[in-house]
Amino acid sequence: MKKLIGIDLGGTTVKFAILTEDGEIQQKWSMETDIQNGGRNIVPKIIESIKQRLNLYGLTANHFLGIGMGSPGAVDREKGTVIGAYNLGWTTLQPVKELIEAGTGIPFFIDNDANVAALGERWKGAGEGGANVVFVTLGTGVGGGVIAEGNLISGSSGAAGEIGHIIVDPNGYPCTCGNQGCLETVASATGIVRLARDLSVQFAGESKLKWLIDDGQEVTAKTVFDQAKLGDRLALIVVDKFYFYLGLACGNIANVLNPEAIVIGGGVSAAGEMLLKGVEGYFLKFAFPQVRTSTKIKLAQLGNDAGVIGAASLVKVRKA
């Protein structure tokens, strides 16, 4: 049995794993992402790290079926290039596939990081191998991946699955994409804090969350959910608004695609059962009757491993 390598390239960390063909992780390691000098050290350091590990474990290129990688930015899956990954400093076209194949001698496959996490959850996590699964990742931004009839949907220009840019409030906050009221502006980690700050201005009652905001303390999405769990009145208003927006987006996604599951992952999903119930309430309100009974909202199960597992599965998907 040959092995797979999965790489999850993020703005702060690069995660690596060596997996079996069945998707079981055998070894994991990580390194800091070196974004200096326009990110030009990133790919050479990835190659160097892979070579070191293969030496360490006594493995050669022949032991591997391929390397898969999830990357931020606009990814050309066929050419294996990335552009516009601003958090990596990659503003010009990066020939990632060409460099890594030349450096390691192993076939290389790449896709957008949110798509890759979707593949991971579908293969080994909450998607349970379903042919129709949508993955929504709530982190510093909001990303997504759509698997329909067993295929990862990339769209005519590779921009399919931009769930963070579904408009949930036409008069809402401006988004970095240039539009107004995108889901990302209210459902990302930073979006939830923005909602909390704005709603606290109008809130007059007793609230620890309001006190923290007014006192200039650091407030994160976790702070908001922790306070909501304790019954803080302002925090409950904030999370309800968040559930409304995310439930509305999930309802619209499900009405178009009717997947078996919409899987919610990313850092914000650590709020757990409470988040699931809240989003479900609004989802049921906005979903079409048949969709309500056939599409389930679920929490992601793989945590930080979704990226490397999904990346490794690219090798199998593309080689097939």
Any overview of this molecule?
The chain has 320 residues and is of the alpha/beta class. It folds into two domains: 3-119 and 305-319, Nucleotidyltransferase, domain 5 (2-Layer Sandwich); 129-300, Nucleotidyltransferase, domain 5 (2-Layer Sandwich). Helices cover 42% and strands 21% of the residues. The protein is built from twelve helices and twelve strands. Strands 3-2-1-4-7 form a five-stranded mixed beta sheet, sandwiched between helices. It has a five-stranded mixed beta sheet with strand order 10-9-8-11-12, with helices on both faces. The chain has a two-stranded antiparallel sheet with strand order 5-6. Strand 5 and strand 6 form a beta hairpin. It is globular, with a radius of gyration of 20 Å. The chain starts with a strand and ends with a helix.
Q: Any chance you could write out the topology, listing elements then pairs?
A:
Layout (H helix, E strand, L loop, with lengths): L2 E7 L3 E8 L4 E8 L3 H4 L2 H16 L6 E8 L2 E3 L4 E3 L12 H9 L3 E5 H12 L8 E6 L3 E7 L2 E2 L31 H4 L1 H14 L5 H7 L6 H9 L3 H25 L3 E5 L7 H14 L2 H6 L1 E4 L6 H14 L1
Parallel strand pairs: 1-4, 4-7, 8-11, 11-12
Antiparallel strand pairs: 1-2, 2-3, 5-6, 8-9, 9-10
Helix pairs in contact: 2-3, 4-12, 6-9, 8-9, 9-10
